[in-house]
Amino acid sequence: MAEKEVIKVIESFFNVGKTKNFSKLREIQLNDSMFSSFSDVPPYNLKNYSDTIVLEELRFSSISDYEYKIIDPITSIFGNIAIVKFRLMQKGMLVDNKAFTGTHITINGRATFVLIMKDGWKIVHFHLDKTFE
Known about the structure:
By secondary structure, this protein is an alpha+beta fold. It has three helices and five strands; from the N terminus they run ααβαββββ. Strand 4 and strand 5 form a beta hairpin. The N and C termini lie far apart (33 Å).
């Protein structure tokens, strides 16, 4: 049961790319100094909660017709901590609003999410990167 709840939180994260309901990002991520994220998209440094929110909104607003697929998730739960590892496929149209152009993109990658049970499951860390298979 807990595994399904954890996956639903992660699906909510990626569904923001479809719905553009950015307030959902604040609901499912822990606004705390413990929060961190890494990505293979600049800036490459370890990001805190507020920087992550800004960058996620920018990323998701720049992609139209967004789709994703979580592939082979493995969930481990240790008390009030959950770790989820999976492969990830994302695709859509990367829009350049200044030039009024778009480029179809498909990104195959991998992801690790760490969640904590604190008023429901909340994302406390994630790491996304591309794979070059």
